[in-house]
## 1
Amino acid sequence: MRTDGVGVSLLWFRRDLRLEDSAALARAAECGLPIVGMYAFHTGDLPADARQHTVVYRQLSILDDAIRAKTGGGLLIFRADDGVFSDALRRRFSHENIKAVFANDVDDPRERERERIMQSICEAHGIPFFRTHDATIYPHDTIVKPDGSPYGVYTPYARRWRERFHIELADPVIPEKKPVWDTTPRQFPTLKSLGIHERETPETVVKIDDTLLREYAQTRDLLDHPHPTSRIGTALAIGAVSIRHAVRRAIEADSQTFLSELVWREFFHMLICHAPETIQTAYQPHLRGIEWGHDERSTEMWKAGKTGFPLVDAGMRELSETGYMPNRLRMLSANFLCKLLRTDWRLGERHFAGQLSDYDPASNTGNWQWSAGIGADSVPYFRIFSPTRQIQRFDPEGAYRSQWLDDEGEIEPIIDYERARREFLTWWKYSVLWKQ
Ligand SMILES: Cc1cc2nc3c(=O)[nH]c(=O)nc-3n(C[C@H](O)[C@H](O)[C@H](O)COP(=O)(O)OP(=O)(O)OC[C@H]3O[C@@H](n4cnc5c(N)ncnc54)[C@H](O)[C@@H]3O)c2cc1C
């Protein structure tokens, strides 16, 4: 154990990878001890080749440089596979003279489990563990129904959210004391040493343009527009910017539609806190026993963007090439997988988790369940998107498709849309509704 000086504070970074406007960092700074920033790669949460590992690694490198420039020694980064997190932590606790631990909350049940591990190790060492609220504007139990129970429907939740909102809630958190970083030299690990496969990722967008916000309500669904949406999702998912920043920008630009989208994020974060089991199972208990199918070949075609339905395929190819897919196409391709292919939503959720650079456990799970018709405030089971109608509405000139497909019309559709639609409706009526 390090015995020099008075010891250090451990700042446990997770989905809050920034040095500004962070509740946990402010609190650690106020404590006054030199801060050691720590990040553990949990490779079990995502596939080893998940794009977000690379995104996180790059952001950690930015933080590490910034901390070194402030005469700190750099971040403490290690890999913690499933089941070894507690051993990995114990080793760190035996090397560092840790006096307190600080962390921002993360709305992911797997992280809650890790907090319990951290808590018990802290207790064993007789040191405090401070967990601060930071991931959303309101803590999950603030916007609730008059009887104290959580909302299961977005509209009344959003109404209450707005009624209670005042701009100070979106003020940045500014520490009263300047953070002092621990100076112990630490080596920044290579991707290889962490067992992570490097992926192509665009730079993480952290700025939200004013014009975009003003035009957002009109542009957000346009597939042929150069900047229809903010692309702030990745920064929010890994915490490169705070949710306070995004909400403040929406209010300043008076972009109510953009704010509503951020409230959807809040809604899904609230839901996963109240119902952590939904990371794996349907939000609606009576829909938990559905026996979804899984046809290996069609799932692979869907992943590869080779279903023969050009808009679905174009979206899936943009996803695998860039780590991004517009919301409209996420809804279309999820609806296609769950309803027309009748495939278990969890397979789609895991595929998106591995591909999206903006993967967010609460939003991905919530949206997948919404699309499959088993989540909170979901699309009704009988709403099945027609890939042809979606083309007429959102890509009539084919600009988006031609950007991502070089073989449009060459792939035989893997299903007959009308037949698959009828079969789904019959299956749902007789196998799902009648079983209740
Ligand atoms: C099947 C499916 C899976 C999805 N998985 C994710 C995910 O893993 N991570 C994620 O952040 N979003 C997810 N979304 C929601 C949405 O598609 C993305 O947030 C959005 O496309 C990101 O692009 P943007 O940052 O340009 O968004 P903008 O349109 O500019 O919106 C701004 C921000 O609002 C939030 N937001 C917007 N729409 C939603 C929504 N429907 N639900 C929750 N938050 C929203 C996001 O934080 C987003 O960055 C998913 C949607 C579907 C249908």
## 2
Amino acid sequence: MELKLYDTLTREKRVFEPLDPANVRMYVCGPTVYDFAHIGNARPVIVFDVLFRLLRHLYGADHVTYVRNITDVDDKINARAAERNITIQKLTDETYRDFKDDVAALGCLDPTHEPRATQYIRRPDSKVDMVTLIERLVRSENAYCAEDHVLFHVPSMPDYGKLSRRSLDEMIAGARVEVAPYKRNPMDFVLWKPSDQQKSNLELPAWRSPCGINMPGRPGWHIECSAMSGSILGETFDIHGGGIDLLFPHHENEIAQSRCAFHTPVMANFWMHNGFLQVEGEKMAKSEGNFVTIRDVLHSWNGRTWPGAAVRWAMLQTHYREPIDWSLTHLSQSADEILRFLNLLRGYHRNSSGKVDIERIASAIDAARPSDAVVAALCDDLNTSRAITAIRAARMKRTRELAVQVARDLIFLGVLKQSDILYYSTFHGVESDVAEKNIVTSIATDYQMARANGDLTFAGALVTKLKDRGLRIIENETSSITISTGFEEQSFDETVRAQIALRSAARARKDWKEADRIRDELLAMGVRLKDNPDGTSTPEIAR
Ligand SMILES: [Zn+2]
């Protein structure tokens, strides 16, 4: 099937032909790791994950290289580490782990490479790193040194501004250009800056400077993407993506650096940008009080825990280039729609005793292929709204085959995960002897959603919350749990015993992944396993 993508640089939708079909190469600007990512940050991660999945489908999973960088050197990071009184390393490691957990709950695959900027400042094993690029640019007179800085000289590149198509005046206003006496031109941007500890009360990260500058320093932001894409993907590659807010100056500057350093006519053959996100019709800002992080939504937003699948489904209903309005109503409708669909799917797959046969669901989905209508819609510049219309039309027919087809398509879009099929459900009632029924019901529903999101830590915290009320969660079967005051002790023990038996079997066949999964599952139920030397395991109540 022919793939067409819209290229921001040429302002046209054209047929995508990879430079090398055996290795389709995509670079997307990733997060600056100093705080939880907000839902606006989630949009490019989801959009380019859909593209990654489509490219893997079209060219083969082993023939696509997706690079998403991690910005771990930035003045915001220095300030936040100082504020929290922790090291920069601890802050960036922690934030990166949180980001990974959040986007996994949103159904995003790991990119092929996630390079950290600090690993590409000087990199002896690669011809391309930030320092070599900077030195090349100085040699070719596209950059110059001034007062321990290295600056890119914008007038040295005649094509500068072609991506954003702005006038010089607009660019100066848009870049909030910092006027500095050492700049030859107000548009010139920083490639390298001094880390002058005398002039700063913050701890500044510092590396040996390029171009014989004595003062140790650190890179400006833009150069990292030229270095990491150049090192991993090469001087020219297929697709460069990011949010529309990065169009200028960041992407304009990336192009200037890479093209002038490598003497190439283009940096990437396609430039793709996703539209803005606003919240309930307003621009999202901390000062507006409408700032929403992905973590907020996954844990507690407007009084409940939201499944990542619903967040993704809500986002994909708008074409990626259009602005998106994030609203509670829309998210709530999306959550209900996925739930109704999962109930239908499970309804078609019950065994003779009425229990959901999860293995039969899994093998039916495995046997299916993504539908032509969905693939065709995505091949038309990632038209996810058209793909969704096709999925809804199939679901409306309410047949068992089409329910499986829809599940396959939702998995293809990254909306459904295995854990959603298992746990994405609403808890309805608690036993008659349980007090504070409403609170308990809502904790139990949050627990189901935490499990659907694969967030065992949060699920564990909810188990503790119930334990504090003298209650236990018992997972009876797929998407069904019981809340008990403890009179069900026997059946809880039985559940644990059955899980231990399953885990022993997994360990016997050396399926460590499954064994670990069961161990984590038990931990979420409040049970820690102690492995004995003889191969058996003893359960202990985790505290
Ligand atoms: Zn970038």
